[in-house]
Amino acid sequence: MILDTALLLAAAFAAGALNAVAGGGSFLTLPALVLTGVPAVTANATGTLALLPGYLSGAWALRRETQTPPGLPLRRLLVVSILGGACGAALLLWTPDATFRRVVPWLLLAATLLFALGPRLAGRAHDRNPHPVGAVAGVFAVTAYGGYFNGGVGILLLALFGLLGQTSLLAANGLKNLVSVLLTSIAVALYIAGGLIAWREAGLMMGAALLGGYLGARGARRLPANWLRHGIVATGLTMSAMFFLR
């Protein structure tokens, strides 16, 4: 019991910090919850709730830097994010645990690869002028993914904002945290309604994620991005391999 508690607290703190800086926190919280005996679907929902305070503190810490990409008004972005998160969460409610266990390794691997390719994808977009419909469709797709799985959604949002023309990493990071707050909040509301939350584990992890998110966002101004990115990719590959083996 003590070891399980220590594992959950450490995973939540590190995940909150990772999500505030770039993303990938669910690579830590989902395996930690599953290792302590929580069913996969419940673990995914509980980990999402546990990381919500970290998104909040990260968004607050970067509130002055937050800025939308050109041609994408904040109100439109927020409305689409809420709709996407709700659709993804509803899909998770309909997914049997056994099916989700089979899908998780592939989701983790896909998120890790997209995380690794994020800067290259974003770098190709600075000379483009994305169509408003394409921008809305991209936001909806990524936030629906986040409502369903959440793993790697932060880096997908960063890559998307880069593709839409946001060249400031801090501005994109602050916006990513804000969008994550919205899609996670609506998703968590549906998870609670569907009875998917393991409340004891969620309660343990939320405070640790809150502290990690705030410290991670403040440290984002000083931490070498390449170090963090390589560490997250290594973590994602390790967790993917672990779930494939299980």
Automatic annotation (TrEMBL):
It is a multi-pass membrane protein. Pfam families: TauE. Its main location: membrane. The chain crosses the membrane at residues 32-56, 77-94, 100-118, 130-148, 179-199, 227-245. It is found in: Cell membrane. The keyword tRNA processing does not apply. Keywords: Cell membrane, Membrane, Transmembrane, Transmembrane helix, Transport. PANTHER family: MEMBRANE TRANSPORTER PROTEIN YFCA-RELATED, TRANSMEMBRANE PROTEIN YFCA. Belongs to the 4-toluene sulfonate uptake permease (TSUP) (TC 2.A.102) family. This is Probable membrane transporter protein. It comes from Variovorax defluvii.
